[in-house]
Each structure stands twice: as C-alpha cells, then as structure tokens.
Specification:
The complex is a heterodimer of chains A (311) and B (241). Chain A is mostly beta strands and 311 residues long. Helix content of chain A is 12%, strand content 57%. Chain A is built from 4 helices and 19 strands. In chain A, strand 3 and strand 4 (55-62) form a beta hairpin. Chain B is an alpha/beta fold. Chain B has one domain (4-90, 134-233): 3-Layer(aba) Sandwich (Rossmann fold). Chain B has 9 helices and 10 strands. In chain B, the strands form 2 sheets. A 6-stranded mixed β-sheet of chain B has the order 6-7-8-3-9-10, sandwiched between helices. Chain B has a 4-stranded antiparallel β-sheet with strand order 2-1-4-5, with helices on one face. The longest helix of chain B is centred in the middle third of the chain and has 13 residues, at 138-150. Classes of the chains: A mainly beta (311), B alpha/beta (241).
Chain lengths: 311, 241
C-alpha cells in the first residue's frame, strides 16, 4: 500500500470524505510528514505548496469575488510512530471571496510525533473563511500538537473556526490562535477537546475587536478524566465603539484531572462591551438527574452529557 | 393497593434551624389516575416531587413513600425510573449537542418522534433536529420535556407545574398531554397552582403548610383553594397565600 493509499484509508476511517479526494470538483492537499502526496486546485483557488525540511509550506489564495462551492480538504498526518510535521500556511482570502477549509490531522500510530502548524491568515473586506480542524490520534498519547494562527479580518469579513480533538489520546496540545477583527467583522472560535490519561491541554484564544461594531465569540468545551490537565485562556479585547465580545468556557472534570479556566476581558473603548462565562466541575447535577429520571444509568448519563458538550 | 402511597411524610432541609417543608403529608395516587396537587407557592409541592423521584439532598426525615406497595427508601433516581416513575421538572435543564430527536429516543429508539412532537404542539420538521439547548424558549423546552416523559410510558408521571413560566402551555395543550398519558395507561401527579388546571384531574388535593388539607373532587378542592380558605388555618384566609 502506498503512503497516499494508507493516508487516504486513515482519512476515510477517521470520517473524512474520501470521495472528495478523487473528485475534480473538490480542491485538496494531502501530506504525510514532509511529503506532499497529492494536491488539486479549482478555479479561483491558487495553492503554492512545497516540501521543506520537516514539513510543508503552502501559500493559499482565494481570488477576489470567488466563492468556492465545495470545501477544500486538507489531509495532514504522520503515519509512522515517530516524526515531525511542520505546516507553514499563508492563507489569503481576497475581497468578497469565501471558502471552507476542512483539515483532518491524522496520527494513528504516534508514539513520538510533533505536529506544528504556523498559519497567517488574511481575510479581505467582505470575505468569509470557515476552517474546521479535526484530529484523529491513536491511544498512546505520544503526540505533541502545536497549532498557532494569527488572523486578521478586514472590514465586514467573517472568520469561523472550530478545532476538535476528541478521538484517541490528546498527548500534549498547545493551541494558540489570535484574531484581529476590523470594522463590522465577525469571528467565532470554537475548541472541543477530550483529554484522558496524562494528556496536557493548553488552549489560548485571543480576539482583538479592533474595528467599530466588530463581533467576537470564543467558545471552549473541554472534558478531562484520569490524570489529565487542561488550561483554557480566552482573551477578548474591545477596542472600538460598538464592539461586542463574549468568552464562554465549559470544562467537565472527572477522576483526578485538573482544569483551569482563565477568561480575560478587557475594554479600551467605553462603547465596547465584552462578557464572559466559565463553568468548571463535575457533570451538572440537574442534567444527571434529568437523564436518570428517564431511566438512564449514571454512567450512561455522564457519557451522553460529555459527548453532547463536545459535539 | 394504590400505585403511590405517601404516609405521614416529613421533610426538613439539611440546614439546621430551617422549618419543615413537609410536615406529615399523606397522599395516594391510584393506577391510571390523574391526581392534581394544588397549592400556593412555597407549600411544598415541588419538594414532594423531588422526594418521590429521589433527587440528591431529598430524603424524608420520617414517613414512607410506597410505590406498588414497596418502600422506595434510598433507591437512586434511575432505579425509581426503571420501576416506572418519572418526572418533568418545572424548569427543565438544557443540554448542549443533544438533538430533540435524540433526546426523545434515549430509552426507546423506535419511538415516533413526529407523533410525540405534534402531541405537545411542536412542528416536528422544525424541532426534531434542533438542540435541547439555550436556544429554545422556556415553553418550547417544557413541551419537549413532556414529550420525553410521554415516550417512556411510565406508570407514574410527575408533572411539576407544566403550566408555569413566561411561555406557558395553554390549558388545551395540557389537556391533550394528560389525555395522552391516560391513553398510555400512566397515572399523573399534576402539580399546579392554577385551579382551572386542577379541574382536569380525576382527583385533587390541596397542600398548605406542608400537609394535604383538602382532598377529593377537583371542583370542590378548587372551590376551597379559590376561596383561599384553609382548614388548618381555622377558616381564616390562608397565611400561605
């Protein structure tokens, strides 16, 4: 089996749309370690990808006014037990364009693997970008994931991102996203992570509402059990009149796991408003009682509540 | 033998020095019967519901709760539910990431969610895929909770003030839901503070000061409640109203 076939099989097993990788209507980029295995682009999307020493570097541009009909699939992974994969991405959505990127990051056998992503994203005036990143890890916990992104959104632009790592062991996660939203721009950042064993989770999302009437939401949903550790920092700054931001963090803790939430809200303009809410603890008693009154066992109730929160 | 029999029940909150909430309450519900429990705010109606259901922190100081002749004692909630007791809370909680259809089929995968939602006055096409989360209004959430209880076909359904709240269910809605419970063979303990709702029951009891003070024909109990007269208050206006 070739490396591409193996990656494609893992991608399919992990819930990815394998059909999309073979369909000319869908753009894609697939890389294992530092090797680009397959790529395709569509009209209005320019991808310049090259292999570097320990990963790949890519410039992705969606041309002005182009609204991509189908999502762009990105399939990254390390299929061996050890290795490093660095992804350097420079993404530009030109004025009035829109695109949805779906990234699958696959590390099924990882025992000592590092996955580093450094992204800069520029979203032009009136453009919209959706970015969904889903990880599929094995059970050894030997993955170190470090996604970092710096995003700027132009006037009236929109940026939605969701990061999901709920399959397998997390290993070590150090997520660091910063978004600067211009006038009338909107951003929503969602992270969902389920930690087990000795997993170590650090999430840091920062939204700077720099332009008038900018809107921002940071939403984190983390469940941890065993001896896992999680620290979630959500920072929102309201720096312009009419800016509205909210930080919403929920963490469910079981066993000996330890969770911390650090919401930081700062307002530098009297016309801005930023709010936050954080809930950390065991599963909500009333939710448990409600499901148990439906006849569910306590462990079934916990499972449903945790899975629902991470969905 | 009554389906549910409550004998001389006393409940004192765990905090020391707090007055009894239930003070020698006795009540019975027959199989298939709709029994309305009428009372003003603070008379102990919801507390009784939590005690029957076995919620955390709600254990009787004395007295008995018998279901089909057996004491429920320290049985946990899910075991009471599996005996056939269930409850729709006055303010049902929200769940992230759980769709209405999933919520209605946890215990009965083959349930007809379309029929259930129509029964509680919700359009299945609009609500089936919605989440049981904060995006629902209070009234929508209550209707979904009632549907989720209906699907269980319990022997005893405790409905805690289905008519309360800003987006309340109408009397007609509640009559429809009660009829569905009866049709499925369920008994209903219908908790309310509105006498017109209690009128749809087969039997009714009025609570005051942690006791049942009047029980029997719903019209007579409603009349008593409406007049705000209370036997334990010796004919003067009830001090709980």
């Amino acid at each position: 089996m070739s490396e591409l076939e193996e990656l494609t099989a893992c991608f399919g097993n992990a819930g990815g749309d394998v059909r999309a990788l073979g369909d000319a209507e869908f753009a894609h980029l697939a890389a294992s370690g530092h090797r680009i295995l397959s790529s395709r682009t569509v009209e209005g999307l320019v991808v310049d990808a090259r292999e570097i020493l320990d990963g790949i570097s890519a410039t992705v541009t969606v041309k002005a006014g182009v609204k991509l009909k189908n999502p762009v699939h990105m399939c990254f992974g390390v299929l061996h037990k050890e290795g490093t994969q660095r992804i350097e991405m420079d993404v530009r959505l030109e004025e009035g364009s829109s695109a949805h990127f779906i990234a699958h990051c696959i590390f099924p056998k990882a025992e000592k693997v590092r996955h580093i992503m450094d992204a800069t994203v520029a979203i032009g005036e009136g453009a919209e970008m959706r970015y969904s990143e889903t990880h599929y890890h094995g059970l050894s916990g030997g993955v170190e994931v470090m996604p970092k992104a710096v995003v700027t959104i132009g006037r009236g632009g929109r940026y939605f991102t969701d990061f999901t790592l709920t399959t397998g062991r997390v290993g070590k996660l150090d997520l660091d996203y910063t978004v600067e939203a211009g006038e009338d721009a909107v951003t929503e950042m969602v992270a969902r992570v389920f930690g087990h064993g000795t997993d170590d989770i650090h999430i840091r999302d920062r939204v700077m509402l720099a332009g008038k009437n900018a809107r921002g939401l940071i939403k984190s949903r983390v469940a941890i059990e065993d001896d896992a550790h999680a620290e979630v920092t959500g920072i929102t700054e309201g720096n312009a009149a009419g800016a509205r931001g909210h930080v919403d963090c929920m963490e469910i803790v079981k066993d000996r796991a330890v969770a911390r939430a650090i919401p930081i809200v700062q307002v530098n303009d009297p016309g801005a408003k930023v709010t936050h809410e954080a809930a950390i603890g065991s599963v909500d008693k009333r939710q448990m009682e409600t499901l148990m009154a439906h006849g569910l066992l306590p462990e079934e109730a916990v499972d449903i509540i945790v899975k629902g929160m991470l969905r | 033998m009554p389906l549910l029999e409550i004998q001389d029940l006393v409940y004192e909150p765990p905090a020391q020095g707090t007055a009894r909430i239930l003070d020698g309450l006795s009540l019975s519900v027959e199989a298939g019967e709709v029994h309305a429990l009428l009372g003003a705010n603070g008379t102990g109606k919801s507390t009784l519901a939590y005690l029957i259901m076995g919620c955390e922190g709600y254990r009787p100081a004395s007295g008995n709760i018998l279901f089909e002749g057996s004491a429920l004692d320290t049985l946990p909630i899910h075991e009471r539910a599996r005996l056939g007791i269930t409850m729709a809370w006055q303010e049902p909680v929200r769940f992230e990431g759980i769709s209405v259809n999933d919520y209605l089929t946890f215990r009965n995968k083959d349930a007809d969610t379309t029929e259930l939602l129509e029964l509680v006055g919700l359009n299945p096409a609009l609500y089936g895929s919605r989440m049981v989360d904060r995006a629902l209004s209070g009234g929508e959430r209550k209707r979904i909770e009632l549907a989720s209880i209906l699907v269980l076909r319990p022997k005893l359904a405790i409905l805690d003030e289905p008519d309360s709240g800003i987006d309340m269910l109408s009397t007609k809605d509640i009559i429809n839901v009660i009829a569905a419970f009866k049709q499925g063979g369920s008994a209903v303990l219908l908790i309310t503070h509105r006498e017109e709702i209690a009128m749809i029951a087969d039997r009714s009891s009025q609570l005051c000061n942690g006791r049942v003070i009047c029980s029997g024909d719903p019209a007579k109990v409603a009349e008593h409640y409406k007049a705000r007269h209370c036997m334990t208050c010796n004919g003067v206006e009830c001090h709980y109203v």
